[in-house]
Amino acid sequence: MRNVTLILDDGSRFHGKSFGYEKPVAGEVVFNTAMTGYPESLTDPSYAGQLMTLTYPLVGNYGVPPFTFEANGLPTFMESERIHAEAIIVSDYSEMYSHWNAVESLAEWLKREQIPGITGIDTRELTKVLREHGVMMGKIVFDDEPENVPEAQYAGVNYVDKVSCDEIVVYKGNECCKLPADMPKGEINSRLASFNAEGSKRVLLVDCGVKANIIRCLLKRGVEVIRVPWDYDFNGIEFDGLFISNGPGDPDTCDAAVQNIRKAMENEKLPIFGICMGNQLLSKAGGAKIYKLKYGHRSHNQPVRMVGTERCFITSQNHGYAVDNNTLGADWEPLFINMNDGSNEGIRHKRNPWFSAQFHPEAASGPTDTEFLFDEFVKLI
Ligand SMILES: NC(=O)CC[C@H](N)C(=O)O
């Protein structure tokens, strides 16, 4: 195992060993305090551009599930087709693994996908540094190649554009069909009508880097899902509900999506639901502002209170930006508030069927306590 050093932007250094693909890498260093879920987190497109630190010390001991796909093209166990995090940083990589569904080790998977993994890092100390200083950029450098220092930028980069789909994908149960994004809208509507002869309700999903379990959660509720690229102008396509997905990076780089959402809002009866980046883009479409948290929420145990009630839900989260509650327009109100730091965890419109969550009701991984939000959305359609 080659020696590596993680160098943070404030000069802090952490020494460890490489267990994944051997390549120096740079990115935003974030921490996740969940105890499980590395296959789902690594394949969550929202981690693009980030070096993922896990505070739970033992990682790798349940191996990696197979990369199989369902007939509709969705991965069976993963959240997308590949790893999106730039690297994984752990305290104690477990070379032995055991799980009924494991087919390879984490090290084998990382090497196959050319993603660095480093172990022997005091990830709790690293997390304390990030919490004191705030989130930082960092580099993983191989000690025997000190001149080979990677560069990267996170702020202002449109990561959504790198991970969104580039054609239209229509899912219905276990079937799927693909249409080119430049097909005339009239032709798309007639193709959609023949694909959906029984007339199930249709959700148009703006793909900012959608996690597969969001699509599974919608399909499980009997709706058809029309997945379109993040900046696709979907106005003119026939659908019954609008969904805005999670996604990586800075929401302020996604103005094309905000414009399209605003146009869709001209129909006050159209149900709209957003998750994570979707909460941020819906808020922006409603006129609110976004800011960057000192350090993000990434774990399985983020407590959120539903505004107007004493109900608290334990949620799965992965975000670094947040909606500024003070900038919500008069027609909007916070729907959930984070019990740890008081930040916004969702919004709703006071009259129209428009709402969103900053956390992940689809979990994958994490608690499923808030999956009912999908039921609420489908009921509105
Ligand atoms: N998971 C997400 O959709 C994250 C949204 C956004 N990229 C953030 O970090 O806040």
Automatic annotation (TrEMBL):
Residues of the Carbamoyl-phosphate synthase small subunit N-terminal domain: 2-141
Domain of life according to the entry: Bacteria
Catalysed reactions listed for this entry: L-glutamine + H2O = L-glutamate + NH4(+); hydrogencarbonate + L-glutamine + 2 ATP + H2O = carbamoyl phosphate + L-glutamate + 2 ADP + phosphate + 2 H(+)
One GO term of the biological process aspect: 'de novo' pyrimidine nucleobase biosynthetic process
Assembly information from the UniProt record: Composed of two chains; the small (or glutamine) chain promotes the hydrolysis of glutamine to ammonia, which is used by the large (or ammonia) chain to synthesize carbamoyl phosphate. Tetramer of heterodimers (alpha,beta)4.
Stored NCBIfam families: CPSaseIIsmall, PRK12838.1
Gene name as annotated: carA
Function as written in the Swiss-Prot or TrEMBL entry: Small subunit of the glutamine-dependent carbamoyl phosphate synthetase (CPSase). CPSase catalyzes the formation of carbamoyl phosphate from the ammonia moiety of glutamine, carbonate, and phosphate donated by ATP, constituting the first step of 2 biosynthetic pathways, one leading to arginine and/or urea and the other to pyrimidine nucleotides. The small subunit (glutamine amidotransferase) binds and cleaves glutamine to supply the large subunit with the substrate ammonia.
Species whose genome carries this gene: Candidatus Phocaeicola excrementipullorum
GO molecular function: ATP binding; carbamoyl-phosphate synthase (glutamine-hydrolyzing) activity
Annotated residues for binding of L-glutamine: 46, 247, 249, 277, 280, 318, 320-321
Keywords: Amino-acid biosynthesis, Arginine biosynthesis, ATP-binding, Glutamine amidotransferase, Ligase, Nucleotide-binding, Pyrimidine biosynthesis
Stated family: Belongs to the CarA family.
InterPro entries: Anth_synth/Amidotransfase (IPR050472), CarbamoylP_synth_ssu (IPR006274), CarbamoylP_synth_ssu_N (IPR002474), CarbP_synth_ssu_N_sf (IPR036480), Class_I_gatase-like (IPR029062), CPSase_GATase1 (IPR035686), GATASE (IPR017926)
Recorded metabolic or biological pathway in which this protein acts: Amino-acid biosynthesis; L-arginine biosynthesis; carbamoyl phosphate from bicarbonate: step 1/1; Pyrimidine metabolism; UMP biosynthesis via de novo pathway; (S)-dihydroorotate from bicarbonate: step 1/3
Amino-acid biosynthesis among keywords: yes
EC number in record: 6.3.5.5
Protein name as it appears in the record: Carbamoyl phosphate synthase small chain
Active site per database record: 276 (nucleophile), 360, 362
EC main group: ligase
Record region (CPSase): 1-201
